[in-house]
């Protein structure tokens, strides 16, 4: 009897379109001889759909044995949909609700990374729009310019900007609050090689298998922004051109943060490699799986077929 796999995609986040592509990749590559798939679409208002019709989540979830979570950003990666799946007792891929929340909250994630000995950029935090001016002034006094301004709870570099000077920094903070950010993190800009490193549980007989780290070379006029990620404008070199020591440090750091957050199944963490050390930036608990995404490139470089990886995720979710 075939396993019925529900694939969640879409969602109410700013990464809706990317999630559609991740879900489409899952649906297209799950081995048909082993699995029956159910395309579960969540629209931008958060309404669930099955077979093209809106319906209640519990009605859909009663039809599946397991869920592959292809959502990104808010609702999909911050623990909200995970709590729903847990409430209905449906096995699913990726981090649980608490691990998802911890990794998505950039301020809490930084604190946890420091606890396990990882370097992170110095930062300031604005928790309310009313604090914007005071925090901007502190940033100008404390950090070399420009700095990185980012929302604490969005993914894929959505809303991230690199700006310098009081007025631009203040404007960037205020813009994020106006767009609905629950808090704004301002970090010193660390210049070095951008890197990302993925890990997969239970692969090739290892409790936590480290994939080859990727070196990211954004366009000269940009950093690894949302547009640079998905426009094809960035160069992504896998394996990255890192020293043997740096490569091993990246792998160890990706494993350390996966364990520190209590994540499950797979994750991908971002770093900056400098001569004086490796700086942790953030972790993706549900890395993109589109044709432009980084994790599939690491899998391919390791000789792991994408279909085999998806089957592995299903088995992990089912506890096999």
UniProtKB/TrEMBL annotation:
Pfam families on file: Dala_Dala_lig_C, Dala_Dala_lig_N
Alphabetical keyword list: ATP-binding, Cell shape, Cell wall biogenesis/degradation, Cytoplasm, Ligase, Magnesium, Manganese, Metal-binding, Nucleotide-binding, Peptidoglycan synthesis
Cofactor: Mg(2+); Mn(2+)
Cell location: Cytoplasm
Enzyme class: ligase
Pathway named in the protein's UniProt entry: Cell wall biogenesis; peptidoglycan biosynthesis
Record-linked InterPro entries: ATP-grasp (IPR011761), ATP_grasp_subdomain_1 (IPR013815), D_ala_D_ala (IPR005905), Dala_Dala_lig_C (IPR011095), Dala_Dala_lig_N (IPR011127), PreATP-grasp_dom_sf (IPR016185)
Positions bound to Mg(2+) 1: 270, 282
UniProt catalytic activity: 2 D-alanine + ATP = D-alanyl-D-alanine + ADP + phosphate + H(+)
Cofactor: how bound: Binds 2 magnesium or manganese ions per subunit.
Record keyword Nucleotide-binding present: yes
Residues reported in the UniProt entry to bind Mg(2+) 2: 282, 284
GO biological process: cell wall organization; peptidoglycan biosynthetic process; regulation of cell shape
Domain ATP-grasp: 110-315
Family: Belongs to the D-alanine--D-alanine ligase family.
Function: Cell wall formation.
Protein name stated in the entry: D-alanine--D-alanine ligase
Gene: ddl
């Amino acid at each position: 009897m075939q396993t019925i796999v529900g694939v969640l995609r879409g969602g109410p986040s700013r990464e809706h379109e990317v999630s559609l592509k991740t879900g489409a990749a899952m649906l297209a590559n799950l081995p048909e001889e082993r699995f029956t798939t159910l395309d579960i679409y969540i629209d931008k208002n958060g309404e669930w759909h099955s077979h093209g019709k809106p319906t209640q989540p519990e009605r859909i979830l009663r039809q599946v044995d397991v869920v592959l979570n292809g959502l990104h950003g808010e609702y999909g990666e911050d623990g909200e949909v995970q709590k729903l799946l847990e409430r209905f007792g449906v096995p699913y891929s990726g981090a649980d609700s608490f691990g998802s929340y911890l990794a998505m909250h950039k301020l809490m994630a930084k604190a946890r990374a420091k606890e396990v000995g990882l370097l992170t950029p110095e930062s300031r935090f604005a928790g309310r729009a009313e604090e914007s001016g005071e925090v901007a002034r502190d940033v100008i006094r404390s950090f070399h310019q420009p700095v990185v301004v980012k929302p604490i709870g969005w993914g894929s570099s959505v809303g991230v900007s690199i700006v310098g000077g009081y007025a631009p920094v203040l404007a960037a903070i205020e813009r994020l609050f106006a767009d609905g950010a629950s808090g704004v993190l301002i970090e010193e800009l660390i210049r070095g090689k951008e890197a990302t490193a993925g890990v997969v549980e239970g692969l090739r007989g290892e409790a936590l298998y480290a994939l080859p780290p990727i070196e990211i070379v954004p366009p000269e006029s940009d950093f690894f922004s949302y547009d640079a990620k998905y426009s094809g404008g960035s160069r992504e070199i896998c394996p990255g051109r890192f020293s043997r020591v740096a490569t091993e440090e990246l792998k160890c750091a990706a494993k350390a943060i996966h364990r520190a957050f209590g994540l499950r199944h797979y994750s991908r963490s971002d770093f900056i490699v400098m001569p004086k050390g490796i700086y942790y930036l953030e972790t993706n608990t549900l890395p993109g799986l589109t044709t432009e995404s980084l994790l599939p490139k690491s899998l391919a470089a390791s000789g792991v077929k994408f279909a085999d990886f998806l089957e592995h995720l299903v088995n992990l979710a089912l506890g096999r």
